Amino acid sequence: MAYVTMKQMLETGVHFGHQTRRWNPKMRTYIFGARNGIHIIDLQQTVKLFQKAHDFIVETVANGGKVLFIGTKRQAQEAIKAEVERCGMHCVTQRWMGGTLTNFQTIKKSIDRLKNLESMFADGSINKFPKKEVVQLARDVEKLNSALGGIKDMNGAPAVAFIIDPNREHIAVQECRKLGIPVVAVVDTNCDPDEIDYVIPGNDDAIRAIKLFATHIADACLEGAATLKENAPGGAKNAPAKDETEVEAAAEKAAAEEE
User: Fold this and answer.
1) Which CATH number belongs to the domain containing residue 198 in this structure?
2) Distance between CA 143 and CA 118 in Å, rounded?
3) Given Cys at both, which of 40, 50, 60, 115 links 65, Cβ 3.0 to 4.6 Å?
4) Does residue 233 share a domain with residue 143?
5) pLDDT tens digits, the chain, 259 residues: what are they?
6) Residue 179 neighbours by CB under 8 Å, 6+ apart
7) Strand duo 183-187 + 198-201: pairing
């Protein structure tokens, strides 16, 4: 079990918030002070709150739950993609498509089309189409992969969402809240912490800070997955995450309401 240390946070600039004039007063309790017009985040709280979030992720994955990493801002995209590939979870790093969670069955149709096209390119059956159409279909695959590649293997609602910058990802946060999906998020001084279940106060703009958190959340996923694998023969701890059935039922209800 490897928690993020105070030293690592200082080295990556986790403590630097936004300009004082851009703050959200609800973040007051997580702010240590200000320096040169920039709010300084209280890292003692960040260390403790990250440990709490880390343990929650480990427990969730150990019980069979999946984590959806969400970070569409430029600074977060590469770190999120790399860590998700390493830990075998799901991610959204391009624009969040409304209904990705609340209307997943519609999104799933696009995912199925992507998989079908990739299969046709792989086995050569795509060549039955005219060359001009093949070129267009190749573009479709590229576009679909950009938007949906990170959730291509997601079969239903995740058990947890890990979000970088909940201000930017406010639609994703709303969908999670609607479905009862717990949200773990890196929350900067301009964000509303009331929307988040597991607040990690920290810099959500610095690439190194984002990489630090994404890496350790991925480590938590791997730790949970290892526990799940160890307990698999007994079967008792290989059940889906406690709230996963409820979440998927809520997703179906939300999708029906949107139709």
Assistant:
1) 3.40.50.10490
2) 12
3) 60
4) no
5) 678 999 999 999 999 999 999 999 999 999 999 999 999 999 999 999 999 999 999 999 999 999 999 999 999 999 999 999 999 999 999 999 999 999 999 999 999 999 999 999 999 999 999 999 999 999 999 999 999 999 999 999 999 999 999 999 999 999 999 999 999 999 999 999 999 999 999 999 999 999 999 999 999 999 999 999 999 875 544 445 544 555 566 656 666 665 5
6) 101, 102, 157, 247, 250, 251, 254
7) parallel
Instruction: Report yes or no on 70 lying in a domain.
Output: yes
Residues 197 and 240 in one domain: yes
d(Cα 61, Cα 67) in Å, to the nearest integer? 8
Same domain, 168 and 199: yes
Domain final residue, candidates 135, 155, 175 = 155
- CA of 210: how far to CAs of 47, 116, 163, 185, 206, in Å? 15, 34, 10, 11, 6
Q: Are residues 61 and 150 in the same domain?
A: no
Please count the other Cβ atoms lying within 10 Å of the Cβ belonging to residue 35: 12
The pTM score is 0.87
Half-sphere exposure (Cβ direction) of 3: Cα atoms closer than 13 Å:
15
Output the six-digit token pair for 58: 């480990």
- Residue closest to 68 by CA, chosen among 50, 52, 45, 84: 84
Range of the domain at 253: 6-96+157-258
Distance CA 252, CA 89 (A): 22
Rounded to whole angstroms, the Cα distance separating 197 from 199 reads 6
Q: Which residue has tokens 């597991």? A: 198
